[in-house]
Amino acid sequence: MKPRKVCAGLVLGWSAALAIVSSVAEARVVEKIAAVVDNSVILASEVEEKATPLMVEVSRIADTSKRAARAAALRREVLDRLIDDELIGSQAAELRLTVTPEQVDASIAEIKRQNNIDDKQLQEALRGQGMSMAAYRADLKKQLLRFRVINIAVGSKVNISEEDVRGYYNKHYKASGANVQVRASHIFLTIPEGADAGVVAEKQALGRKLVERATAGEDFAKLAREYSDDAATRAEGGDLGLFGKDMLPKAIEELVFSMKPGEIRGPVRADRGFHVIKLVDRKTTDAKPLAEVEDDIRMQLRQKEMDKQTKSYLADLRKRSLVDVRY
Prior knowledge:
The chain is of the alpha+beta class. It has a domain at 178-286: Chitinase A, domain 3. Helices cover 55% and strands 16% of the residues. It has twelve helices and seven strands. The strands form two sheets. The protein has a four-stranded antiparallel β-sheet, sandwiched between helices. It is globular, with a radius of gyration of 25 Å.
């Protein structure tokens, strides 16, 4: 920033000038840096701004240490997302991708249509989350840009063949003569990278305690909102939705499909942590012809592979970039 020019007729003594500089320095709040991503900086204030709407549930946790741990985990999730946005933004610049205001308008129109709300209701919902329309549009623009980059970088590599679809159909529809789908909820307890045996044991013990509490009658969704480290499902009480086989890690799938509705099991370890599972519902229907379900199967298989490839892509971007986390 260039220094302001001093009026030609005004001359200050050295001590007076020093006093003014000191006063300005004390009045100015120095922003804390949360992370440096190549040549970009993510400020702590950005993390706090994005995390604020998510802290509503956290504020309801009575135990102060658990509340602090959950808040810290949420901030890290937000920071990771902001880091990913910066990396993807750089990729978008390299690919010369942009998102126009008209594309943001179209996205907002679709959101209103799907939720059956008008402009006023949307603005009220945003106010309830402490977000302005300008900030919402900026977030949507980032999401659309993220989608375009991922679709080009990852989507082009995902190819679900007719053999893939037919193989899934033969295994899960035709072979059994019926289509079995389940609806489940989970509480995910992440194990930090590099954690020692003591930390792993603590997480496992917490999982056992949560099974006991839920089995004793405590609301599973409430426990998930309080304890789960899965940002994608926590707000919905851990709801994983309705799904068939081959959609979850093998250890989780085997457990879920062996359970009865209402049963709570775990903790079972898979991927990066422990899962506590509640089976909500199980549906068995007569197998439909391949022609009726192939589009749904293809979409499920593609989404599963996209999720897998996206994680690898973002991990690779981090390895190839300078990412210095300071928060």
